[in-house]
Batch of 2 targets.
Target 1
Amino acid sequence: MAEKKTLGRGLNALLGDATEDYAKLDKLRTGKTVPIEQLHPGKYQPRHRIDATAIDALAQSIREKGILQPLLVRRDAGNANSYEIIAGERRWRAAQLAKLHELPVIIRDFDDQTTLEVAVIENIQREDLSPIEEADAFQRMIDEFGRTQEEVAQLVGKSRPHIANTLRLLALNPRIKAMVDTGELSAGHARTLIGAKHADQLADIIVAKGMSVREAERLVKRDHTPKTKTPTTARTPSTKDVDTLALERSLANVLGLNVAIENEAGGGRLIISYETLDQLDFVIDKLTVTGAAPTTRKADASDVPTTPPASAAKAVADRPSSTTATPQEKPKLSVSLKPKTIQQVR
């Protein structure tokens, strides 16, 4: 009954005033064929670049089989004979190369927020977006429409940590972003470069050597090493002996992490630096007593009563001076682990 009433109003409007906009009747139809020149790309298209080779291949397919799936569009607010493409811009471009004059469309009355969300979801489902394009689209949802990361995650069917990690890519410089867009770097490789001082040079090395993400992490860590070791060097101007350096290298080879031994009068410190939780778990596993399960939970006062807070991302093993230990008893080993603070990019 509701459909008949709507149709009656549309016909009355058409017959009562021949000059009235034909769009009032046309709005009853959600699917139709429109001239290709009446379509234009949407302002909320999340894709940054179009692969010309892929468009040529799609155009050839369209010449042979036609358009198999209609484009999703909405009407322009100021022009009843113009339509903004929500999903299907690649098909529209390929259809122009194929010399088609009309295209099938599905018309929806979407507001700006829904238009952006539908465009992002449609592209993510097709896996058409690069990680940087995803990050830009997620950030627009947050900035322009007040969405939280949790809400964005629910909308696109991803986990909240995935949304947060993807948004971190926006902190990269334009050259690294372009490398991710073109597929030269994966999102995992790119995240290792966030905050790196020589990100461009490191990215070139990663690509040239075909490094894995774990190898890239170690490369970036080595690039940071001189900066983090400078204060230590200033405090301990004395050079290390050959045996100490050899022991450092031996421990570093076993752990795969940066190890420093600082000798002091009657004692010293063993410093094991880490940058990722995986590395922390590995260190804890090595230091944990046999049979105890490794854990990355924060230590409380009952766990490590005498260890002071760590000021950097490292594991520090302090052994007491000879003045506090009797000749018959072995020095005790206390361990403090604290991960480096990572600033979330929003």
Target 2
Amino acid sequence: MPACGICILNFKGGVGKTTLSVNFAAGLANTYSKKLDRNFRVLLIDADPQSNASVFMLGEYWKKEIFLKPEKSLYGIMTRILKGNMTKIDESDILGQFSSEERTPVFSKEKKFYEDGKGIYVDSDTYWPNLHIIPAHYSLNNFEKEIRYDEEGRVKIPSISSTIYYYELLDRVGEFIKKYYDFIIVDCPPNIYTMTEIALYFCQNIIIPVIPDWLSTNGINWLLMQVRILKEKFQHKDKIIRAIVPTLWNSKEHVFNRHIRILNKSLGLWKRNPNYSDLLTKAEIWVGLQRLASVSKSIESLRPIVDYQATEPARIQLEMMIKKIANWVEE
């Protein structure tokens, strides 16, 4: 069964997109599958030039190894494809453990803070052999300028010996990752960049993080329009918006409760709209991830939320969502 591809998508920044991407990936990798008799294999692809998901998962390793060598990132993969130097993504393009002799750099360090606010990196006590990453680099911004395609959106790829649509790039070279992993999560850029289109073509499922306020809720209308346009551009390849996930919310704030009601009402209207109904047949509004000190602490210390005790509210909220996603591979 091919991997379940999931885009974490919102064209508005600051909505918790990276926090969800990393913690969904870690949460799924921490989940045992009875059917497979093992934990899920998960790949996170950081397609955002800001590289926040990469820094979150790799910490000091990203600064020492990826920042100085962009060829080891998604940018390097994309440029090698364009130049005809590769035909598929394989183990050498991915950071993670593929054999017992290797030590994965994923969450291998955590940041400890002293009372004076200074922090140091120390070895982590936890181990993530089945969570891998293709990291991003700031140079992904250059990829937008470097890719050249004709009026129909076609680009010549020497190694593929054919002309393809530019948004098919990752899909054409992703055979190995689609077979090896159970889940592939893509942290998308907060705009309609070329990499966003490439990621959306590659993934069938979409999760939309949203801050429960007026601007974010109103912005979903535009996002739905863009996904509809892209689906038509992709020759109506299946795209399913699975969830709208409130983030950074506080149940004590009246505005939160009001906007959750607005979101529920809006989702009902969008589902009845013939332009969007096929995108939203399985869409739900999830419990989301609250604005909690533990969430901020996990980011600062470079640790996933599943590292916290099972009674921690942020972990409870996360695992409720992970259970829903884990069921998608059975569909």
